[in-house]
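Q: Structure tokens for this one, please.
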Amino acid sequence: LRSNEVSKNISLMIMDDLRTQLPVWADVVLKDKEAAQYISGIAVHWYADFVPASQLAETHNRHPDKFILATEACNGAEPLEHSPLLGDWSRGDNYAHDIIEDLSNWVTGWTDWNLCLDLKGGPNLAKNYVDAPIIVNATADEFYKQPMFYVLGHFSKFIRPGSVRIGLHFYSKPISYEGVAFSTPTLQRVLVLLNRRTKPMAFSVEDEAIPGKALRIHMEPRSIATIVWNK
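A: Here is the predicted structure, written as tokens:
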């Protein structure tokens, strides 16, 4: 593959399975030096993300030369959930929480399984109907952008390729709020905050590179916000 002009830039990933398999799966495969030379990264799904995200960080620490990519996620995959829920914020909240958790633990990107599905959550040959950021109503010739769609935009629109995650410190211990921060190639700071509480919250954002200044942020209950400023 590497000697072929068409495929020379292809990156091969191993696993493509749940967090529960890490870091053991990566350890077993990558200890084989001959196999390891062909592998660029480790693919992980979100379906068992009750497993601590620290396992992602541990995998990175053991294999820092291999990237970790979240390659599959969708809402509605659990029993009794197999259908779209139009306008349901909790599913957008699930996405935001998982993306923040992944990016905070050395995952380099996050991929939705289905960007677009019909009202039933298909088509799917296995009848494994799930939800998606965009739902198409073919009969009415309409499509609906779900909360998941807008949540994805908070990350994909502002955290551009080449961005580097930077430290984020909360002065009080986060309970129902969380965030992740990046420095972009255009010399901007990007901070994505998620308020999972049913009450509004207020934050003061301080940048150590800009002493003596703070930005006051007010967040509505169960909301997400992205703040961008110049270094």
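A few notes: Residues 164-230 form a domain with the Immunoglobulin-like fold (CATH 2.60.40.1180). The longest strand covers residues 188-195.
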